[in-house]
Amino acid sequence: MNVSLALGPSTVFALIVLIAFLIFFFGAWSRIEQQGHRPVLRALRPLVRLKSLIGQSAETGKGLYYSPGSGGLNDQPGAAETLSSLTTLSAVSRGAARSGASLQVSANDTLSYLAAQDVVQAEYAGAGRLDDFDPHNVRFVTQQDRLAYIAGVESSLDEEAISGSVMLGRFDSEYLLAGERANQLDIPQVAGSSRVEAMPLMLASAGPESTLLGEEIYAAPAYLSRRPALLASVGAQDALRMLIILAIILGVIAASTGLLPNIGDYFLR
Amino acid sequence: MQRVKIYLPLIVVFVTALLVLVDFFTTGLVDNIGHVLALWVSLIAGFLLLLGLANISTVHFQRIRQGHPKRLYSLALLVSMVVVILAGVIGRVAGYQDGVSNWIFQYIYQPLATTLFSLLAFLLINAALRTLRIGTIESTLLVIGALIVLLGQVAFAPFNGLHSISQWFQDYPVLGIIRGILIGTALGAIATSLRYLLGVDNNYMR
Fold first, then answer.
1. Predicted ipTM of the assembly
2. Do A80 and B124 touch (CB under 8 A)?
């Protein structure tokens, strides 16, 4: 058997990023656990609003609607966004279970539907309120059909007693259909996506105070739960970003001076 | 038993991730294992679809039984679901292959989806006007930028001068910002994936 390393420009870059992230991540995690050195996080206003939506739901007795995006766990480009949204859902359901708010969740594929159901059930069980968990409040709407899913979200906003809507995850331009329906019904909303197709529409529909942009949706779980591992992950992302900025600056200098003319291959492929 | 329930999924996730990474970074050791595992996921997702169908059926049957004001829509959904499933099965058995399902898709579903999508244009104008009324600096800049880029694409003589401004917008500030967002997003995706693979984010099985 002839085994060899498949190291081309793109794999070398991926390997460096992977190893660097693991080093930064475990370094930051051990600093938080051993020395209690928690990173200072800048305020994210949409997440403050999200917490207030949970409180409003508990006060009014109306449900809080949560959508983990119109992507899915079996949809490769959007799987990470959906995973991050499910971690955020975990923190939101914990808040809902503790405050007595009711939560309604919908999903656009079976894997995220089952994962969402497990996440919400686990948080209600953790808060000692398993009796209040209704499995029918987590709904499978469609199987990876973005438009039909958004039509289902619109219909739920229209028909159910909803006090607030949270749409975090992979959305494209179809988000606007649900976002504008929420506006017409005067339902306060928090939205977020890392897709450039959805971000301007979210800013226009939900407003800058209620929109999580790009990487902010990946940081949301750390902000809401404050768990050391999640905070360490945000710290590692920042350290890696600084490393990449440095690599880009050095790369531009190396390519411009002719020192390493093919350095761009390591970044572009 | 409780420990097995917690650790077994973690071990499966970790080993699977390790195999995919080894497949990506080596040749000749576990070639194509990533592809095979992706096929397995599709297969499992196919079976899980039955659970999804059960959930949809239960929710809408309940609405009909409880006399929900919109119960007719629930009935329409259930009837459509049964018709599409039967069309697929009977079409296959009768030798039409996917002809019947494709007909439903092409002549019923597709026009409905296109109609729904076309509403976006009107909703976008509505959202833009509301944004302008709010009048914050960011939202006003967003709408003005969108208008310049949009009018720059129009083949109408009075707007020809905007074409170069629109192109400059797209080539420099927009492209730079998009690349910045993409780097941040990619880092976020890497962090999230690795947290799940290392078993740090295990809220789905507590």
1. 0.89
2. no
